[in-house]
Design goal:
With about 260 residues, this protein is an alpha/beta fold. The chain has nine helices and seven strands; from the N terminus they run αβαβαβαβαβαβαααβ. The chain has helices at about 5, 25-35, 45-55, 70-85, 105-135, 155-175, 195-210, 210-220, 230-240; strands at about 15-20, 40-45, 60-65, 90, 140-145, 185-190, 255. Strands 3-2-1-4-5-6-7 form a seven-stranded parallel sheet, with helices on both faces.
């Protein structure tokens, strides 16, 4: 097998991607479909799920609030049944959470951010790990963290706290699951261009009482390459980690961010 062959995920991989009807998750799901994987997605937005299925007839999908343990259990059961097992879990689902000083954050918004970004990953892991052990010869878990999981992020403390926690979760699970040949890694996207980042920039600009253009330029000035990353950049790293080329990569928090220097 050549080095180039190692870079291609094995055809027929059975992949579950959470929060994947739009954004980064959708790009990851589409990339796996292009690599001849069998892909199951879930998302809380039923209409977006239907649009994703219409675009990609081979896609399997379910609707679920990932912060709800019972709904997660139902997704795992359906994915296992429709895919015939599981090789790759991509724990992607997450929300931006509130923007503001810590003393002004609504406790309900804090709790919702933790439930969606962190608890959901545990809910999927507790059900998916036994399936990965039973049905896969090359199992992999890929968790979506953030550059805010390696740097402090003022006025975004709920989001940053969950993303740091995901890195700790991944590093601990890599040790725990290594003897079972399960590789566990985190991807830390930087400033990802798109509508979601536009909303984050607008909210932070309002919080700091500056213009949106000034806030956007401030973000770019913090990036060594002076550009945002795309959802395809994140999808490409996900495919690499699921490919034979990534077979000895585990316990890593891999930044795809153009080298964000500070937040």
């Amino acid at each position: 097998m050549s080095v180039l062959d190692l870079l291609k995920p094995a055809p027929g991989l059975r992949v579950l991607v959470t929060g994947a009807a739009t954004g980064i998750g959708a790009a990851i799901a589409e990339a796996f479909l292009e690599a001849d994987a069998a892909v199951y997605i879930c998302d809380v937005d039923a209409a977006a799920v239907e649009r994703a299925k219409a675009r990609h007839p081979r896609l399997r999908a379910g609707v679920a609030d990932v912060a709800n343990r019972e709904q997660v259990d139902a997704v795992i059961d359906d994915a296992r049944r429709t895919l015939g097992g599981l090789d790759v879990l991509v724990n992607n689902a997450g929300i931006a959470g509130p923007t503001g000083a810590v003393e002004s954050i609504d406790p309900a918004e804090w709790e919702r951010t933790v439930a969606t970004n962190l608890n959901s990953q545990y809910y999927f892991l507790r059900q998916a790990v036994p399936v990965l052990k039973e049905t896969s010869d090359a199992p992999a878990i890929i968790a979506m963290s953030s550059v805010a999981g390696r740097l402090g992020y003022a006025f975004r403390t709920p989001y940053a706290a969950t993303k740091w926690a995901i890195v700790g979760l991944v590093k601990s699970l890599a040790v725990e699951l290594g003897p079972d040949n399960i590789r566990v890694n985190a991807i830390l996207p930087g400033v990802v261009e798109g509508e979601r980042m536009d909303r984050v920039i607008a909210a932070r600009a309002q919080s700091l009482d500056i213009s949106v253009d000034a806030m956007r330029d401030a973000y770019l000035q913090k990036i060594s390459l002076r550009r945002m990353v795309s959802v395809d950049d994140i999808a490409a790293m996900t495919l690499f980690l699921a490919s034979p080329a990534g077979r000895n990569i585990s316990g890593q928090a891999i930044s795809v961010d153009g080298n964000v220097e500070y937040l």
